[in-house]
Design brief:
CATH class of chain A: Mainly Beta
Shape of chain B: globular
Number of helices of chain B: 0
CATH architecture of chain B: Sandwich
Strand content of chain A: over 45%
Number of domains of chain B: 1
Distance between the termini of chain B: 27 Å
Radius of gyration of chain A: 15 Å
CATH topology of chain A: Jelly Rolls
Distance between the termini of chain A: 7 Å
Shape of chain A: globular
Number of strands of chain B: 12
Helix content of chain A: under 10%
Strand content of chain B: over 45%
CATH topology of chain B: Jelly Rolls
Number of strands of chain A: 13
Order of helices and strands of chain B: EEEEEEEEEEEE
Oligomer: heterodimer
Largest interface: A-B, 45 and 41 residues
CATH class of chain B: Mainly Beta
Helix content of chain B: under 10%
């Protein structure tokens, strides 16, 4: 078996409300590689994910460090998080993320997800590294991705956004 | 056309499901001004038109006098400073810093001539959706440690071009990339499914 296999690519030909991967295969780890513009006109560059259809934000916890313009931020909060661009930017720049989901089939571990994100855009540039804990030991069977336009306000993604899920094996 | 080794010529099926394809590695035996990777445009492993993303791994050192050399990665021979827009977050052992800047290539901090002997800076650069009509997004992380000096950083760079990427040039901030520097390029395949 190959060390890294492409499971599926979703390339948006029109705007959508969310993107879901529900055939995750039997690998050791998963990686998502994403370029996105979220479907909202604010400066917030957050995406969220829900695992196994668990949409209770309080079941997810995150830490992150971020550089936005000349400001550095390190914080913790409730809810999942990954990075994307929004329609608020004047340059048509798609934010880029690499999201790693380790040991996702293990039923004895809560799942920790890491993501690296970058978007050099005008006027809102960010780079960030995020850790998210899903407080659940279930094996992951689906991943739903959304963008965020405000507290408890979620949107989808614009045409041209791309999402590819990879499976990783050590042997 | 001769098909790449991972495609069965009789059936057209992909026989190797490896999504990351090693394209090329260059290790400098002597100082060099530029390291260049070029798409072969022949349907083989080196033809970048088949890939979704590229990943460039660098382990390098440059000739800039001082502790740090700003290696630069340029696409399609574009050296225009305003065409590479960047955001950084870095730390030097004393604090964390952030900033935006325009530069003439994707910036990678690597040791300069004042760094200790045999020290090289490590980075991984993810170059996204290289064949799209989008501006190209690059997200990279780097480590340049000189036993008492050095930095770690993550950076985002937007190359303001909608052209497909067909050439990558890596140069030192000043002078040459130094002997021993190593650059590996990988192609990342998509999987289009209904």
């Amino acid at each position: 078996m190959a060390a890294i296999e492409a499971i599926a690519t979703t390339y948006l030909e029109s705007d959508v409300s969310s993107v879901t991967f529900s055939s995750l295969g039997s690998y050791e780890h998963l990686q998502l590689r994403i370029t996105t513009i979220g479907n909202a006109y604010n400066a917030l560059k957050n995406g969220i994910f829900y695992l196994n259809g668990d949409t209770t934000d309080s079941n997810y916890h995150r830490h992150y460090m971020q550089g936005g313009g000349s400001t550095t931020t390190a914080a913790a909060a409730t809810g999942s998080m990954w990075g994307l661009n929004s329609k608020a930017d004047s340059t048509p720049t798609y934010g880029a993320s690499v999201i790693d989901i380790l040991d996702y089939r293990n039923t004895n571990k809560n799942t920790t997800v890491t993501s690296s994100f970058g978007s050099a855009a005008t006027p809102n540039s960010y780079v960030e590294f995020v850790s998210c804990l899903w407080d659940n030991t279930a094996a992951i069977t689906s991943i739903q991705l959304l963008s965020q336009s405000g507290p408890q306000s979620y949107n989808g993604f614009t045409r041209g956004s791309s999402f590819t899920l990879y499976g990783l094996n050590s042997s | 056309m001769v098909l790449p080794a991972y495609i069965d010529e009789s059936t057209g099926e992909i026989t190797d499901g490896e999504a990351w394809v090693g394209i090329a590695t260059t290790t400098l035996g002597a100082d060099a001004a530029t390291v260049t990777f070029t798409s072969t445009n022949d349907g083989q492993v080196g033809d970048w038109s088949q890939y979704m993303d590229l990943v460039l791994v660098t382990y390098s050192r440059g000739e800039t006098v001082g502790l740090t050399d700003g290696n630069k990665v340029r696409f399609n021979n574009d050296t225009t400073g305003a065409n590479y827009q960047a955001q950084r977050l870095d730390a030097d052992g004393s604090g964390a810093y952030a900033g935006t800047y325009d530069t003439s290539g994707v910036w990678i901090s690597a040791p300069g001539t004042s760094a200790g002997a045999n020290e090289f800076g490590a980075s991984v650069q993810h170059i996204f959706d290289i064949n799209s009509g989008k501006y190209k997004s690059v997200v990279g992380s780097e480590a340049q440690d000189s036993n008492g000096d050095g930095t770690v950083a993550i950076r985002a760079t937007t190359w303001r071009s909608v052209a497909a990427i067909t050439e990558i040039d890596i140069v030192a901030g000043t002078g040459d990339l130094l002997a021993g520097s190593m650059f590996s390029l990988f192609g990342v395949l998509p999987r289009m499914v209904a």
